[in-house]
Amino acid sequence: MASKLVILESPNKIKAVKGYLGKNYKVIASVGHVRDLPKSTLGIDIEHDFTPKYINIRGKGDIIKDLKKEAKAADTVFLATDPDREGEAISWHLMQVLGLDETKAKRIRFNEVTESAVKAAVKNPGKLDMNLVDAQQTRRILDRIVGYQLSPILWKKIKSGLSAGRVQSVATRLIVDRENEIRAFKSEEYWTIDAMLKTEAGKSFKATYVTSARNKFELSNKEKADAVLDKISGKPFTVKELKKSVRYKNPAPPFITSTLQQEAYKRLGFSSAKTMKTAQELYEGVSLGKDGSHGIITYMRTDSLHISQSAADSAEEYIKTTYGKEYYPEKRRFYKSRNGAQDAHEAIRPSYMNYPPKAIKEYLSNDQYKLYKLIWDRFLASQMASAVLDTVTIDTECEGVAFRSSGYTIRFMGYMALYDYKPDEKNDDDSEKDNILPAVEKGDVLECTGITPLQHFTQPPARYSEGTLVKALEERGLGRPSTFASTVTTIIQRGYVERDAKTLAPTPLGELTTKLMCDNFAEIVDYGFTANMEESLDEVESGEKKMLDVLRPFYADFEKEVDDALKNIDRENYKLPVVETDIVCEKCGSRMVVKSGRFGKFAACPNYPECRNTKALDKDGNPITKEDKEASVTPAPDDVKCDICGGPMVIRRGRYGKFYACASYPKCTGTKPITKEIDIPCPLCGSKIAIRHGRNRTTFYSCAAYPKCKFTSCDTPTDKKCPVCGGMLLQKRGKEDVYVCYNKECSYNAKPKKSKDSKSK
Q: Do 668 and 680 fall within a single domain?
């Protein structure tokens, strides 16, 4: 039979895909990109039509060697990288590096790692989409030009080590602009009045003063509020109007990348990066016991709301079977994607309806389960019937002053039986929620049992959280779903933005960098310009524009701005502000200043390098004393004793994490690592094996009795026995189904045969 090779992007998919295709297919992974622009130079020949100068990525030599070997031996090579711009570009690079042509290389795409999707893709291969490749290259070239030509300007004019980016600089500006809005905000006073009313049947409910034309500033001070109180105090209220209606509340659409990040942040507290990492794991495949390894969600980088017919049919069957026929709408729901969305893709949904979250919870990590359940619930709810609410509005009046009460009861739960979607509070028109009103009739006279005037002040706009920043980027068309998480991570890592509780605040460095960019590169950080550039990239993808149609006009203006900036920017206008503290340097007597480092803010002597004194600061900016450090020390378990003096130990935190230290320090300097043991005996002495961490934060395994017992391994110990010598088998790092014997004298190195009950479905 002809030799067939499948090249994936991620090694995490290998096990599942290999199980689906069988022994006639060889499945390997490129482990992401194999070529990229060089890091040391611009890597773009601008004078020759912006030609990129790609090189093989350092460290990928062995992978490329293996790929060439396998590709040469194969009759057909299936390029199965991710179904997006980046994946298409990786396939194109693979063709270049491996010397493949279209007669031998076939492009296959699947939106989910399932048997049906993978087999269908192999059965119906296509060609490389060069429009997608060109769109990715255009973006990469633009980002490289902006980053490599603007970053040195920041180094010269502000400080070394800074970076600028086409999207990251705009995202930083969003946060800086919001902070300036907050600072410029002037609070205004207003009052509301609530009255507690009681019916003849003794039922009480709350009514709120109705301002004219919903003008909340009508009662702008206490005097105006008191005037209303004087008018109605001690007087009865009359029901003037009673409105009853039925309201249908529709479910939210299934997730796309941006809404998944927003909702995961809001409901689960996940950062954008954590959400995408966890979603990647669910997409690439998780081991489901006897059912084998499967990808349990569809591709998680998408801006499409499209749902396949088969997925919709499966959802319909599940809803009717699990909840009842009344929970499925009369007509299937369709959701319209935004303009420019790739409807060849699907929304993020479960790959199978026979794996409800609770049924596979034991096979998932805690984070995986939480995110999978969120995706499952949102998708199913999007296909369910609307909730039906009975709404009631009661208008009452006292001495010509109008009050109103609103509330509802749920007649039919519909999708809310599964997923009670709640929009952002500021956009929530459910002002009546959780307010069940008693039965009244028009003309009823009500007793007022209490009146509460409340003073309010208008609040400034809230700082962005990670979730709301992603939403703002999406709404303005700044970046694409695949870039949102990395953009947020980048601006935090660069020190332009910092987390303040659950919000994002600009640092002085971020504000200064944004000022320089706005003053000298206004177009680069202009929201409209950046959005238009994204639209241009979409047009390259669709074939409406060529690469040079985008690059040439951009660079003509950009080059002039760079030249002008180098000549005209005065460094004196862009100095970082020096924040003095009340902390006096005990070595030279100067007032210390606040600096930022890898581990956050600290106090430093302003006379550096002559005086190198520094002090750690707590979150409130106060110096952390020796006493503070001692107070934060946690005692170690009673059975943990110092190996040097035999005394008790405490838990301390160092550069590489927590460790045990002698409680008598500095008299005794004894330390030992904090280890987690696994229930697998050491092959040398029979003691338990401990998980340890090296100085480079890599994980390795050793005997818990180390250094008495010298057993160590970078690979994972298992309870499996070597079929040759009977010794322990080690699972190779990063390779789920590859085992080697721990005994170096034993040559066993094989992949275990799959049993019948472990074959993929």
A: no
Closest CA to 648 of 661, 657, 667, 630: 661
Q: What is the pTM of this model?
A: 0.75
> Looking at 25, 54, 190, 299, which residue is catalytic?
299
Q: How far apart are CA 238 and CA 227, in angstroms?
A: 20
* Run of H or E including 615: strand 614-616
Matching residue, tokens 């479960």: 350
Residues near 230 by beta carbon (within 8 Å), at least 6 away in sequence: none
Helix (H) or strand (E) holding 272, with range, is helix 272-284
When divided into structural domains, the chain yields a total of 7
Q: Residue 190 pLDDT more than 90?
A: yes
Which of the four pLDDT bands, split at 50, 70 and 90, describes residue 618? confident
User: What pLDDT, on the 0 to 100 scale, is given for residue 1?
Assistant: 43
For this structure, is 299 an active site residue? yes
Q: What is the mean pLDDT of residues 87-112?
A: 94
Q: Are 45 and 51 a contacting pair, CB within 8 Å?
A: yes
Query: Quick check: 752 pLDDT over 60?
Result: no
Residue 513 confidence (pLDDT): 95
Contacts of 449 by beta carbon, 8 Å cutoff, 6+ apart:
196, 197, 198, 204
Which tokens in the block code for residue 633?
């020390």
Does residue 236 register a pLDDT over 60?
A: yes
Residue type for position 702: S
Instruction: Quote the tokens at residue 117.
Output: 């999707």
Q: What is the pLDDT of residue 594?
A: 86
* CB of 658 closer than 8 Å to CB of 652: yes
Please indicate, yes or no, whether residues 665 and 714 belong to a single structural domain of this protein: no
pLDDT at 556 over 80: yes
Inter-residue contact 484 to 467 (CB < 8 Å): no
- Is position 501 within any domain? yes
Distance of CA 637 to the CA centre of its chain: 37
Number of CB atoms found within 10 A of residue 589's CB: 10
- The candidate with the shortest Cα–Cα distance to 413, out of 646, 284, 251, is 251
Per residue, what are the HEC states of 526-559? CHHHHHHHHHHHHHHHHCCCCHHHHHHHHHHHHH
Q: Residue 752, preceding bond cis, omega within 30 degrees? A: no
12 and 113 both lie in a single domain: yes
- Rounded to whole angstroms, what are the CA distances from 168 to 37, 491, 576, 650, 669? 19, 6, 20, 43, 46
- Distances in Å between the Cα of 344 and the Cα atoms of 109, 139, 299, 303 are 11, 21, 12, 10
Do 101 and 177 fall within a single domain? Answer: no
Cβ atoms 348, 375 nearer than 8 A? yes
Tokens at residue 409, please?
């009861």
Residue 653 and residue 671: Cα distance in Å, rounded?
12
SS3 316: helix
740 located within any domain: yes
**What mean pLDDT is reported for the chain?**
88
Give the DSSP H or E segment for 176.
helix 168-184
In a domain, 736, yes or no: yes
Range of the domain at 271: 257-382
Question: What would the two tokens of residue 192 be?
Answer: 């509301």
